[in-house]
Design brief:
Length: about 375
Amino acid sequence: MLARMARTSLSRRETRFARSVLTRNLQVRPGENVIIEGWSHTLPWATALARETRRLKAYPLVLFEDENAFWDSVDSREDTILGAAPSHEWAALGKTDVYIHMWGAGDRLRLNSLPGDRGAKLIAFNDAWYKAARKAGLRGSRLEIGRPFPNLAKVYGVKESTWTNQLIAATMVDPERLQAAGRPIARALERGRRVRIHDHRGTDLTLGLAHRGALLRAGRITREDRARPYDMLNYLPAGSVRVALDESVANGTFVANRTCYYETGKATGGTFEFRNGRLVRHHFDTGAKFFDEGFRRGGKGRDRPGMLGIGLNPKLHNTPQVEDIEAGAIMVSVGGNQFTPGGRNTSPFFGFAINVGAQLEIDGRPVRIPGGHRP
């Protein structure tokens, strides 16, 4: 069995993926220390990343957690131990240049079904981890390749193999290509005042811009990223431009043609209607509860425009958890945008809808966005 696992983990597919992440995205240099966090379902990827790290004359360390052993500890209510910040792990973190994370436990449905207080105990180390990461000055990535899992693929209604293959291809898109596609869009969003989104299927929405900085995510860690509290880790695959909207401006209708994937389910057929800067009506053909539950608890600002996102990645098509970065995707959100530069909406709610193929205009001028798969 171990021999078969080794052959699988060092296959050409995993090797090419690992080499791309390490060289194109993280730009690992000889002599650097690299920690790779692997779980049972991501062990082939962790193995390939470790092997390619050595080929780059850098030093890998794999932190491994077995899925069954983890859940046995959860069932035994060893929450405090699981959520601890052990000194030997933190010592290693302090000497780390690059950190690669693959989203932890595979059974996200079971994880999200835990009561809130228990879930919080399991990640009690989180703030201490980021504090140590900032002190170490490390850079790294969270790899979406760790998300596909049999029971979650079933809930989403997708083939796990298709999901995985799209993530592989999308992660390996050259950051330079994404940077070139996104730079003019980011500039236009920063300079403009009004955005119009329209198509022939019912979308016609006007939103406001407030000369706020646009975040271009092309797959490399920038100096600005490392200066922010949590952005020393980027997300791969990458490919988006995001900007905080003027919270007081929104009029018209936005009709989605992509699925909204939540942690434990999905919503389809979304429609947002805005008037005088507020969401006055929303509808989903299926899965409305995933929006409505958060909206009910959203408090002040839940109905205000939040963020505009433009997708750049040509290798995705309605792909779970990265549906907003598909090339040609336009995402409109409502609720909190305080984590996007200049955003003032502090609502804890984040609701969104996505349209691929609509036209985008800024101050009356068409803006070319990358064409992905059309509806």
